[in-house]
Amino acid sequence: MIVITGAKGFIGKNFIKVVNDQIIEVETDNCFDFIDNFTDWGKVNLIIHQGAISSTIERDINKLHKFNVDFTLKLLEKAIEYQIDTKYASSASIYGNTSNHLYNPLNYYAITKLQIDLWVKDNINKFSNIQGFRYYNVYGHGEEKKHDQASPISKFKKQIIENGSLKLFEGSENYYRDFINVDDVVSIMLNNNKSSGIYDLGTSKPISFRQVAEEVANKFNGSIIEIPFPSHLKGKYQSYTCAKNEWKDFNFKTVKGFLNES
């Protein structure tokens, strides 16, 4: 039996597509009821924790702490009590604008993710096996319901198809992201032989937003319209992300390859 939180989300759904076991789905709106009332922990052999308030512009720190920290700690305590292997989603946002993988969270969401990572490090020997994965920019099929939280790859594609053009922030040639396909995220998390620890999960080959926009525009024969960089994102926007090269033998999908599948 596998417990999957965030099961109806973009990444959670992709886990459900490939997991061959009885699945207990947990969503944010019932997560505390689940913790308080679920009694079959002895039958659970894996926890895949994907559920969270994931908006990087959420300002309600109490809401973020309730779901991203309080619930996560309750879930991880069950994993320790019943010695259940656990894989959970962290975030590369904890690095902020650093390029040397030092902690520099720029928003409340990133702070909550860092809190959990630090707690896990302090308690790692209590788990049968626990792996945290600091996601970089995840994209792929099934992002439609994410709306503003969707990757720029999917946003640009939608804009081009609907309007014949896409909107790109001025200066986007200076902003680089490590984009990773959701299929690769699922594959690595479910099929690795690493010990307990917290790992970066990205390709280690960042590309600029400008390059992504050009790839999409070329694929769908559209144009690019530059717009001013939003003032509310200034100082809160990572200029460069690149995962530590922890999966060097993995054959990652590319943005161009994904667009060719479309």
Q: How much is the average pLDDT?
A: 93
**How many strands in all?**
12
CATH superfamily placement of the largest domain: NAD(P)-binding Rossmann-like Domain
Helix and strand pattern: EHEHEHEHEEHEEEHEEHEH
The rounded Rg comes to: 19 Å
- Fraction in helix: 25-40%
Number of helices: 8
Q: Give the termini separation.
A: 34 Å
Give the spatial strand order of the biggest sheet.
Answer: 2-1-3-4-5-10
Q: What structural category do the secondary elements indicate?
A: alpha/beta
CATH topology call of the largest domain: Rossmann fold
- State the domain count: 2
Query: Mind telling me the CATH class of the largest domain?
Result: Alpha Beta
CATH architecture of the largest domain: 3-Layer(aba) Sandwich
What order do the helices and strands come in, and which of them pair?
Elements: E1 2-5, H1 10-18, E2 23-26, H2 31-37, E3 46-49, H3 61-82, E4 85-91, H4 108-123, E5 130-135, E6 137-139, H5 152-163, E7 165-169, E8 176-177, E9 179-181, H6 182-190, E10 197-201, E11 207-208, H7 209-219, E12 223-227, H8 255-261
Parallel strand pairs: 1-2, 1-3, 3-4, 4-5, 5-10, 6-9, 7-12
Antiparallel strand pairs: 8-11
Helix pairs in contact: 1-6, 3-4, 5-7, 7-8
